[in-house]
Amino acid sequence: xxxxxLKRTALYPxxxxxxxxxxxxxxxxxxxxxxxxxxxxRAVRTGAGTFDVSHMGFVEIRGPQAAAFCQKLTTxxxxxxxxxxxxxxxxxxxxxxxLDDVVVYRLEQRRLAVCxxxxxxxxxxxxxxxxxxxxxxxxxxxRQTALIAVQGPRAAAALEPLGMESxxxxxxxxxxxxxxxxxxxxxxxxxxxxGEDGFEIFVPADHAVRVWDVLVGEGAxxxxxxxxxxxxxxxxxxxxxxxxxxxxxxxxxxDLGAFVKLDCGPFVGRExxxxxxxxGPVRRLVGIVLRDPGVPRHGYPIEREGRRIGVVTSGGMSxxxxxxxxxxxxxxxxxxxxxxxxxxxxxRRLEGEVVRRPFYRAPATGSGPAGHAQGRP
Length: 377
Known about the structure:
Elements: H1 12-17, E1 21-25, E2 28-33, H2 37-46, E3 49-52, E4 57-62, H3 66-73, E5 85-92, E6 98-108, E7 111-116, H4 121-130, E8 137-140, E9 145-151, H5 155-158, E10 176-181, E11 184-189, E12 198-204, H6 208-217, E13 222-223, H7 226-235, H8 270-279, E14 283-290, E15 301-304, E16 307-317, E17 324-331, E18 340-345, E19 348-355
Parallel strand pairs: 3-13
Antiparallel strand pairs: 1-2, 3-9, 4-7, 4-8, 5-6, 6-7, 9-12, 10-11, 11-12, 14-17, 14-19, 15-16, 15-18, 16-17, 18-19
Helix pairs in contact: 2-7
């Protein structure tokens, strides 16, 4: 039996040269950190950080039925998506379980793109092909495309050395545009996964090193790994597929009902979700802040008055707040904001409280661009 051969992004040599600590993430050898998770986390909160997220999938849908095809597979309303706009959405199975959370980009009237999570990329593309329809061509661009995310209050300024034809600062939140980056055609979107202002650059893979070197070499953005990406997204209250939701979780249980438009036409899973919308989920994802010192982790029990009512799905110490925070599912009606709960941490029951998400809100930009998911890392 041989060890699994990990895949590598086009930026792998850059990570190695920078001394990054590499880990296996969804079958990819990815940087967890360069100089330390806390330093990289704070760089994003105060300035700008750049992430290699090329392990995520980029799929173009082209043709006269491209929009109709995306509507058939996603829960949000594609009809509201204008050219040059992006939309957070979900792929569900027939039972209403979340197969993946995605971002859909409408580049032109007959040309859309979908960004899927790394762990779900193969299955996501297969799911699309399984439901293929005439008039919609599925073009899997994962191998040809690298994805670089630049996040933080100075993200727009960090992109200036790239000489974009369409300046990033003019792009609206959840806008997307095809523009030249260092002379090469790329897609740039003002989205993210950190709670800060930010951008994602889809660039040809053979051009990625040049873009990365300019961003890092100019000192405009600090390289950041998946460790900081996880602490940032947790503070922003954003979910990670496979950890906070999966194919057995409905959007309503995951508190993502705002991205389910039951009146926008038939889509896979709609009938099951119509039924659940009438009764409501039996459990719901909530945010919890610990009152006692301690660090909640995935799988820790959530209790109330001595009875187990749920489980932590994501948790950690918030570098910004200096307190333990967690996402987790609890039985209803214990999901109400202000509900006192306890989380069992290494045999100790620590007091906490159900709170509104996000845990952290950027001072100047509100909650910042909502993210993916996209595995989002």
